[in-house]
Amino acid sequence: MNRTNALILLPRLQVQSANAVSGPLSWGFPSPTAFVGFAHALQRRLSHLIERGFGGVGIVCHRFDPQVSRPAGKRTQVFNLMRNPLGKSGNSASIVEEGRAHMEVSLVIALYDDIDSDEQSLFAEQVMEAAHGMRLAGGSILPQRSGKRYDADYVSLSPALSERAVTYHKLTRRLLPGFMLIQREDKLAKHLDEMRKAGKGSHTLDALLDLSRINYEPDLPDEDNPEERHWGIRKHSGWLVPIPVGYAGISPLYSPGEVRNSRDAETPMCFVESLYSLGEWISPNRVGDLGKALWHQQTDVENGIYLCTSHYVDSVTTNEISIHKERS
C-alpha cells in the first residue's frame, strides 16, 4: 500500500453555483463523491508531475450559502431557479429542478509522491493553478485572492507517528474557523442496534432518518423538575447529517451503444441508485488523526458498487455498514 508522504492544502476556495442536490433524499452540501472526483481529475491533469498520485481528500467548509428563498405566505423554502430558456410564449418551460449554492471550502489532499524540498512550493502552486481551471461539484472556482492565507501549501509528513501528530495539529489550526465532514457509521450502527433492541424491527434507513430529522417526543425529562415529563426535541450528540456517498448498480452492465440516448456511446453503461450514509460536521481541531478524516473511493465491481468512505472510526467494518445492499 502506498504511504502518504505529504498533504497538499488548497485553502479557502470560493465556489459559485455548486450543486446542492446530490441525492434523491436530501439537499444541501455537495456529496463527498464530488470532492473525491475532483481530486482524481486534478491528479490526471498533473500526471506529468507525479507518478503514484493522490490519496484521500479532506473536506472543510467555511461558508455555505444555498440559493433559496421563502415565498410570501409560505413556510417552506424553494430554490432560486434561472428557468432558461423561455418558451415561445414567454413563459418558463418545465424543467428538472436544480439546486445551487455558493460555498467556501478548503481541501486537504494526500500525496503519495515525494517531491524534492526545493520544488515543493512550486508544486503546490501548480496544483492550485490547475484547480482553478476546473469545476468543483458543478460550480465555478473564483480567482484566487491575494495573501499568504490563500496560498496553497505543501505539508511534508514524517514517518514517525508522534511527529505526524504535531504536523496535523498545526495544519488543523489553519483550517479554523470551519467544520470538517467525516463519516460516522459507528453512530448509525449503534442507533440501529438500539432501535432493534426496542422491538421496532427497523432497517438502516429508519435509523438514518431518525438521526437526521427533528423528533418531537412527549416523554422527555424537565431540566428544572426531573420528576416531571414534557414535550420536547430529542437531542443527539454532534452535528449529524445524511450524506450520499456513492452508487450501487441496479441493472446489468450494458455494452456501449446498447442503451438508446445514453450520454456516451463508447462506454459501458449501468443504471444505479444512490447510497446514503451518516456524516458529522466537527471542528478540525477535534480531529486527532487527520489522515483518518480523509475520504477515499472504493469499488466493488462484482456487486456494482462505487463508494466513498472515510476511516475516522476503524471499529466499523465495511460489512457492518448498511448502505451497501440492505433495502426494506
Please tell me about this protein's structure:
- The two termini are 37 Å apart.
- Helices cover 19% and strands 31% of the residues.
- The radius of gyration is 22 Å and the shape is globular.
- Helix 4 packs across helix 5.
- It has 328 residues and is an alpha+beta fold.
- Residues 314-328 have low confidence and may be disordered.
- The strands form three sheets. Strands 1, 2, 5, 6, 7, 8, 9, 12, 13, 14 and 15 form an eleven-stranded antiparallel beta sheet that branches. A two-stranded antiparallel sheet has the order 3-4. It has a two-stranded antiparallel sheet with strand order 10-11.
Provide the fold topology.
Blueprint: E1 6-19, H1 32-45, E2 54-66, E3 68-69, E4 78-79, E5 100-111, H2 120-131, E6 135-136, E7 139-141, E8 153-156, H3 161-174, E9 179-183, H4 185-197, H5 204-212, E10 216-221, E11 229-233, E12 239-249, E13 272-282, E14 295-300, E15 305-310
Antiparallel strand pairs: 1-5, 1-7, 1-8, 2-5, 2-9, 3-4, 6-7, 9-13, 10-11, 12-13, 12-15, 14-15
